[in-house]
Amino acid sequence: MRVFSCGDWRHRLALAGFLVIVSLQFTPLTSYAQNLGQQPATGQAVQGQTAAQPEGAVLNLVNWVGNVIAPVGAALAVVMAVIAYSQGRGVARWAVTAGGLLVVSGLTRLIEFWISNGTAGVQ
User: Fold this and answer.
1) Contacts of 109 (CB under 8 A, 6+ apart)
2) Residue 39 domain-assigned?
3) Are residues 55 and 23 in the same domain?
């Protein structure tokens, strides 16, 4: 019994190539995605800092996870829950994943708020 036929291998290779081409098309968008005002600022994490500084790089990572990755992942998990429901399968794992990603997004936003407002120290 053969696990992979020749057609499956070709389809997987074609899909992998297609995904690489599509991801390369989005590279310019990601380099200009950060906007700190009127003009896009590439190579800068936050105003007054460069991406080479550790503070700017960490804040940039937290912003990216909290504002982009987690909400998009939650939306995709909701779509998968709808698809699973339409096919009669369980939706709990997708719903829990979506909720967890929204919690991660909210917590990173909360930490960002605490950092930006807590620079004066605890009084």
Assistant:
1) 66, 67
2) no
3) no
Domain of 25?
A: 1-32
Q: Are 30 and 22 in contact (CB under 8 A)?
A: no
User: How many domains are there within the chain?
Assistant: 2
Is the domain of 22 the same as that of 64? no
Phi, psi of 35 (to 5 degrees): -130, 120
pLDDT 10s digits, 28-84: 655 554 545 555 555 555 555 555 566 666 677 777 888 889 999 999 999 999 999
Cα-based distances in Å from 122 to 49, 54, 77, 111, 119: 25, 24, 38, 15, 9
56 and 22 assigned to the same domain: no
Confidence of residue 1 (pLDDT cuts 50, 70, 90): very low
The residues, any chain, with a CB within 8 Å of residue 112's CB and separated by 6 or more, are 59, 62, 63, 66
Residues 19 and 56 in one domain: no
